[in-house]
Amino acid sequence: MRKSSFALLALAAAAVLSTGAAQAQSAAYAIDPTHTFVTFEIGHFGATTNRGRFDKKEGTVQFDRAGKTGKVEITVDTTSINSGTPPFDKHLQSADLFNAAKYPTIKFVSDKFSFNGDKVSEVSGQLTLLDKTNPVTLKATQFNCYQSPMLKREVCGGDFEATIDRTQWGLDYGVQYGFPKNVRLVVQIEAIKQ
Predict the structure, then answer these.
(1) In terms of residue numbers, what domain contains 70?
(2) Distance (Å, rounded) from C-alpha 70 to C-alpha 75?
(3) Which residues 6+ apart lie within 8 Å of 194 measured at CB?
(4) pTM above 0.90?
(5) Which SMART domains match (predicted)?
């Protein structure tokens, strides 16, 4: 009886230790703003495509390749919107659209990573925009981790995209004129192991 109790205790301790070892493989990464871009594309009367990007962004990533888990949090500054046309930027920042004075940030938070082999294939989370939160899944078009020869640290990143219905967040401007509801989001992200 004592032997079996000791064996069970030893197994439980081994399980706790192995769980701790698995958790220890999760690493913290900081988003590299010089290699991270958040952009959007929306059709313009079926003739061309309007594009813009947010120049200021920050965030963190927790990533465990072996455990195939991760967490990400990205915040973009809506006042940093850049379409390449200053009058259009002012309209994008106005109450008609992103309402940057009232809602200065957009946030994406995720704790669900999906994998194809050892590569991240998609990241599912919650997008908060104009004080409304809805689920969004960003699909990876490419993903890789590498040892940066300049930083002497591991860097992980990829290109991710999703198409969202902007009216879910109350971004309704122009729908009555024929502007599409759907917006393509493209997120290029690289994060440096800390």
Answers:
(1) 26-193
(2) 17
(3) 27, 28, 29, 30
(4) no
(5) YceI (SM00867)
